[in-house]
């Protein structure tokens, strides 16, 4: 009953719901980042460790990686509009576009992190992208993020395989869910933003909405969907 009501609500205003989801995904990482690093001019007006400003910017990109992954997973679980049921071709390949945005953001996040470490130590930390959980707290936290990174690579390759109707592609593409949660854990362990109430509220909101839409999705065989 509850999911039938939710189904009606989701189908009644799909454009508005998507607009809200996109707005949240676009704005919340910036809000959290600015709340934690409110005095951005400090990094340009005072002497700071080499690469510090670049590292701080890489954290913003990291937030956007998680937010875009959440957006991708959430949009995929939303019910299709009636226009899709009438076999009207959708205007854009939304899933591919968001996936491409995830790829660009991950690449930028990694590039900024490598550059920041290089400016500080004079060495590119390529070895950090080989997961190793038998280290200290900081490096273990990075390794968790590295595992999530390689899962995303697999997910993207699986997406290409799925478009060519390779069956294993659909199975491997589901690794996007653990990749998202590994990214959350990485962010929680390594970031100072976890002390922010806004960060906690946003993370809770992402997990709650994904859980609700996942249950909504798996309940489909057991409910009657009313469509116009």
How would you sum up this structure, described in words?
The chain is globular, with a radius of gyration of 20 Å. The chain starts with a helix and ends in a 10-residue tail after the last helix. Helix 4 (52-77) runs parallel beside helix 10 (197-218). The chain has 10 helices and no strands. 21% of the residues are buried. Residues 83-91 have low confidence and may be disordered. The protein has one domain. Helices cover 73% and strands 0% of the residues. The protein is mainly alpha-helical. This is Ferric oxidoreductase domain-containing protein. Keywords: Membrane, Transmembrane, Transmembrane helix. The chain crosses the membrane at residues 16-35, 55-75, 96-118, 138-160, 172-191, 197-216.
């Amino acid at each position: 009953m509850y999911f039938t009501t939710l189904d009606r609500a989701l189908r009644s205003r799909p454009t508005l719901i998507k607009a809200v989801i996109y707005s949240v995904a676009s704005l919340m990482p910036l809000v959290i980042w600015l709340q934690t690093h409110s005095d951005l001019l400090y990094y340009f007006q005072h002497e700071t460790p080499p690469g510090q400003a670049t590292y701080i910017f890489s954290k913003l990109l990291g937030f956007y990686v998680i937010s875009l992954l959440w957006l991708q997973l959430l949009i995929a679980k939303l019910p299709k509009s009636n226009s899709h049921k009438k076999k009207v071709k959708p205007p854009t390949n939304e899933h591919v576009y968001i996936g491409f945005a995830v790829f660009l953001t991950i690449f930028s996040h990694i590039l900024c992190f490598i550059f920041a470490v290089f400016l500080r130590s004079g060495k590119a930390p390529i070895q950090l992208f080989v997961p190793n959980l038998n280290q200290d707290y900081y490096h273990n936290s990075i390794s968790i993020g590295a595992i999530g990174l390689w899962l995303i690579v697999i997910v993207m390759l699986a997406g290409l395989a799925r478009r060519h109707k390779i069956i294993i592609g659909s199975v491997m593409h589901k690794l996007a869910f653990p990749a998202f949660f590994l990214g959350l854990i990485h962010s929680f362990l390594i970031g100072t933003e976890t002390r922010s109430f806004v960060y906690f509220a946003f993370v809770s909101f992402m997990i709650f909405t994904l859980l609700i839409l996942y249950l909504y999705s798996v309940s489909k065989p057991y409910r009657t969907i009313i469509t116009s």
